[in-house]
Write a structure and sequence with these properties.
Blueprint lengths: L2 H27 L6 E11 L2 H5 L2 E3 L6 E8 L2 H5 L7 E5 L8 E6 L1 E4 L4 E3 L6 E21 L6 E3 L3 E2 L3 E7 H4 L4 E7 L7 E6 L1 E3 L10 E3 L2 E6 L1 E10 L2 E2 L6 E9 L2 E6 L1 H6 L2 E3 L3 E2 L7 E6 L7 E2 L7 E23 L5 E5 L3 E9 H5 L8 E4 L6 E8 L7 E4 L4 E8 L11
Parallel strand pairs: 1-4, 8-12, 17-21, 18-22, 25-28
Antiparallel strand pairs: 1-3, 2-8, 3-7, 4-6, 5-8, 8-11, 9-17, 10-16, 11-15, 12-14, 13-16, 17-20, 19-25, 20-24, 23-25, 25-27, 26-31, 27-30, 28-29, 29-31
């Protein structure tokens, strides 16, 4: 292409661009658009209080917006129009409302002066209404975390035990309780705070479509120091003479107690209510309540302060014995003759002790030390092994006759 041809081509291109730009200007300023739609314009519901009077409520989550078909003087005016330039309302007080979906006419209260709404006479909004109900539900506290080592958190104290859930029947009926969530991780003093009440269903899922009255409440969780304290078993009365007490043990041997530092420092042990031994006639386990001083309480009190007391008894039995009475410590130049050389006695002790006795080691003896020729009344001694009691049979004293040995005469006593 020669130089003149190129110039002619460039001129033609420029003319086309200029013509297109002029066309855009004219169409944007002079030629109106026949139809244009603005979407998502909020619809204000007037006199919504009539819903409460009719025991109705709006179902949450509805899209209460509409779209308008508009026209204007020029394209730029329409393109610049925004949803916020319009005020659209629906007056609920003008209609007999009931549960379910209903169409309410829409009224345009405000729009730009240079814009007309084409579909203003045929606008409706569909609202979904539900029966408005209330339910009084219990409040539960969900405590998470653990207090500082050596401290214990007691049960939460609530400013009230119930609150009211308000909303549509569809949602209120699935709310099972109101939950307060409290974190006590690392706490070493009382937790006192105002918490939000969360409505939850049976699975613990929050139901956000209802209102709670009151929405918040005060919760106090006492956090106190703890101490492990031994349990001491108290008894009253006496066992039957047929038994002896082998042992008393308690489970658990100690309990964790919580309270003020001052009260815990003064506490040495915990006593049970007295167990009447006169009513015990066999080895047995009984329940006993632990007495907790005022101002203190049990940690993790799952047994209401009841401990198990194991009482072990030994049965007492009697045994008849026939003992040889012997003398000891007689001077070698004397002979001795005892008033009696046999004695029947009755001893008692536990079955275990009596059955394990070595009866050969039992004896009765009179001590003749420092006694001279003549008659003497001497005390009889019968040593009892540990755990054995002498019931009867041993005389307090017997008569002993001491004589000089005859020279060249051999005597036989067996002592």
């Amino acid at each position: 292409m020669d130089k003149d041809g190129k110039q002619q081509f460039i001129i033609k291109i420029c003319c086309v661009i200029a013509a297109f730009a002029l066309w855009l200007f004219i169409t944007s300023t002079e030629n109106p658009v026949t139809a244009f739609k603005i979407k998502s314009i909020p619809v204000q519901l007037l006199n919504a209080d009539v819903l409460t009077h009719s025991n109705l409520i709006l179902v949450p989550g509805q899209d209460l917006t509409t779209s308008l078909n508009i026209k204007g003087a020029n394209t730029s005016t329409l393109l610049n129009a925004k949803a916020t330039d319009f005020t659209v309302v629906a007056d609920l007080s003008q209609y007999a409302l009931k549960k379910g979906e209903q169409k309410i006419p829409i009224e345009i209260r405000k729009s730009p002066d240079n814009i007309s709404v084409i579909n203003s006479d045929s606008l409706f909004i569909t609202v979904n209404l539900d029966e408005r109900i209330e339910a009084k539900l219990p409040i539960s506290v969900n405590v998470t975390g653990k207090p500082k080592e050596g401290f214990y958190a007691s049960a939460a104290k609530l400013s009230q035990e119930y609150a009211t859930v308000v909303g549509g029947s569809k949602f209120v009926n699935i709310v099972k309780e109101l939950l307060v969530e409290v974190d006590i991780e690392g706490q070493e003093s009382d937790v006192v705070k105002n918490y939000k009440l969360k409505p939850v269903d049976a699975a613990g899922k929050e139901i956000k479509e209802v209102a709670v009255n009151p929405s918040n409440m005060d919760v106090k969780i006492p956090v106190r120091k703890t101490k492990a304290v031994a349990v001491k078993v108290k008894t009253t009365g006496n066992l039957s003479s047929d038994y002896t007490l082998a042992s008393i043990t308690v489970l658990p041997e100690q309990l964790d107690i919580t309270g003020s530092t001052a009260d815990l420092e003064q506490l040495e042990n915990l006593n049970t209510e007295a167990i009447d031994l006169s009513k015990i006639n066999k080895t047995t386990t009984v329940n006993a309540k632990v007495l907790i001083p005022d101002g203190l309480s049990l940690v993790n009190n799952t047994t209401d302060g009841i401990v198990k007391v194991q009482i072990t008894l030994n049965k007492v039995v009697q045994k008849n014995l026939s003992l040889d009475i012997k003398y000891v410590n007689l001077d070698g130049k004397y002979d001795a003759k005892l008033e009696k050389v046999k004695q029947a006695i009755v001893i008692s002790g536990t079955e275990t002790v009596i059955n394990s006795l070595d009866l050969k080691k039992f004896s009765a003896a009179v001590d003749l030390a420092n006694l001279v020729e003549g008659e003497h009344t001497v005390k009889v001694s019968v040593p009892m092994p540990e755990g054995v009691n002498l019931i009867s049979g041993v005389p307090d004293k017997i008569l002993v006759t001491i004589t000089k040995k005859q020279t060249g005469v051999t005597t036989s006593n067996g002592n």
